[in-house]
Amino acid sequence: MKIVIYGLTITSSWGNGHATTYRSLAKALSAKGHQIHFIEKDVEWYRNNRDMPHPPYCSVHLYDSWSKHLRDISVDADAVIVGSYFPDAIPLTHELLDADLGPLFFYDIDTPITLSRLRACGHTDYLDAGLIPHFSAYLSFTGGPTLQELRDCFGSPNPVPFYCSVDTDLYSPAAPSNRYKCDLSYLGTYAADRQSMLDRFINGSASLLPSMQFLVAGSQYPKDCAWPSNVGRIIHISPREHASFYSSSRFTLNLTRADMVAAGYSPSVRLFEAAACGAPLLSDNWLGLDEFLAPGEEILIPVDEYEVASILRHFPERDRTLLAARARERILSCHTAEHRAAQFEAIVAGCYAGKA
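Above: the chain sequence. Below: its structure as tokens.
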């Protein structure tokens, strides 16, 4: 198939989780013989931090301002994907529908945030509620009850749980690095609604355990963020270094944004990537987490900094190794890029079968 994706970014992993998600999917689809085109707006903050300007598995089309030419890339496409936070998504979708191009899919890597805004005012910068019934399928980052809401309240004819996935060529156990060595790590861009939990789990635990080392990696943290002396900071880690990062800490932390917690069933790509690297995981709790990793057996769910500190002090080494191995096995059995590419093929085939 010729598959055209209009997305936020695939060329830069700076300050976003979209790039690695698109990369793993596009790479796996390309490996199955499909031709992938990715259209991305050339914005300054990604241009200045572009770690993959020419992905070997897809053709990238960068643009400064929207033009009809960019829509015409989809004229002979077998499947067209419009992604959340694509800057020109609304006018693009109207143009694609007017030209009867498709089948047309909306890929929402931010479903709870999208629906929160749609409930409030009926639109976001990248999606109007009235367009949802016209997509052949709504590929949702979030599963569970959200899918029923997309069908019943917003008229989606085919809401599908389309979770993020992990590229196992990049994310697997790696040799530890002294640069990333610590007792508890966290990788994530700053988000105001996550910061109080990060302060509690990282800073609070670091204050309780002054002899242990902690590490926070991610961009956009305010300059006035205070960190205990045993909490290291790295502004950005390239995806090619993620495996080394995750493999160098005794435990790594997963934290979830408020809208995702409220919706449930919203695993982040970082959760899958860390598990695939064999990192023992700690996480906040949310509805549906146990559908991806079993609490107590594949992931630990501390409630506060005291439980985090207790885990770091007392969790047996043998159990820590088993926890990581079970999580890795679980994710590799269900959530690799190859799984998601096969799922997408099946969704597209279903659309063509329905038309026939």
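The longest helix spans residues 337-355.
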